[in-house]
Amino acid sequence: MADHWDGGQENLYLKCPLRRIEFCKCSNGARHEFLIFFFGHWIDGSSAEAVICVDRTFKLRTQDDNSSKQFPGLVSHSSSEPSPALDSVSMVGSPQDAKPRLTQSHGPYTTLCTLRFSPSPAPSALEVSTVLFLVHQQAPVYDLIDSQCFWFSDTVWRSLKALFPINQELCNFNNHNSRARYGGFTVGPSDPSVQAVCNAYESEWQRVLKKVEQVKQCHEAELAQVLQRGLAQGRAERQMEINQLHVKQQSEIDRLRAEQRTELDRLRAERQHEVDQMRQMQAELAQFRAIMGVAASEGTRN
Question: Which of 2, 132, 276, 293 has the most CB atoms in a 10 Å sphere around its CB?
Fold first, then answer.
């Protein structure tokens, strides 16, 4: 999640505050426990709420093809190899879609408690993901006694409650005491796990913030390169436009000069024609005078 960037100035998940958590318990079977997170976010400038389901199951490997099957809740298995815990984060949709979809995937369930956070210091989705990571690190292997769904839900719940203390837990006494219990026995809570998560949180959060800053710098560098390429391309396009304009202007100048030369040639030709006509007229006039002079001389002799 630290790698995700929204194209703006920060990580998208830093802008999604956690509004509340619901601690849920299935009504049938192993009484599987899971958490429902309600995050605030924005869609087209309007406030909205996204629902996320978080729970722990495990994958049991088969000996035939190394494939795996997913099991929810408290399940005993006879495999000699430890099964990796499958801590899942699933997008459920809007609050209106949550109940029917979760009932379809988990069966009937009851909401035991609700943990509400104040808007201003509420943990972001990125901070919640950091806590989930640390809880998983405490017990990456599914264990029927010590680290099953009851342990996971309780550890996540109490870690967030301790790390972000401006909150309000709402539940009645009976529902509260139903958490992390199966068949009347307590099977999940672990104070050392919660303490370990809280102790490791600050250093892990700083590591996440460092990663976010690195991603930000990477995106800023990419943006700078894009802008630089855009500027270079803009300069090249502008220079091309200038060159094209220069060619066009030079072509226009050449055309005007050609028109001027044509006009001058026409004027010279007309002038030369007028001169030739004048000379012809002068020659004809001189010839006429000569003829008239000869006629006058002959008349005098007679």
Answer: 132
